[in-house]
């Protein structure tokens, strides 16, 4: 579960997405809760899917293993 605190930089959603694509195994579902409607929108811009309220989820994609 990810939660972004007030006054967190917009880059936090981007950083979370980068970490999810490189560290978390493919196929894992990650949930997040945005503190505000603005942060909710930012998470959606970075590939998170809206759920209930300010909750969102992201399914880690399969990584391309080709060189």
Summarize the structure in short.
The protein has 67 residues and is of the alpha+beta class.
Descriptive terms for the model:
67 residues, 21% strand, alpha+beta, globular
Largest sheet: 4 strands, mixed
Uncertain ranges: none
Instruction: Report the sheet-strand fraction.
Output: 15-25%
- Mean pLDDT across the residues is 80
- Report strand order across the widest sheet: 1-2-4-3
Number of helices: 2
Tell me the radius of gyration: 12 Å
* Total count of strands: 4
Helix content: 25-40%
List the secondary-structure elements in sequence, H or E: EHEHEE
Give the CA-based shape: globular
User: Which structural class fits the helix and strand makeup?
Assistant: alpha+beta
Characterise this structure:
This protein is 31% helix and 21% strand. The chain is an alpha+beta fold and 67 residues long. The chain has one domain (2-59). Strands 1-2-4-3 form a four-stranded mixed β-sheet, with helices on one face. Helix 1 (11-22) links the parallel strand 1 and strand 2 (29-33). The longest helix has 12 residues, at 11-22. The radius of gyration is 12 Å and the shape is globular. The protein starts with a strand and ends in an 8-residue tail after the last strand.
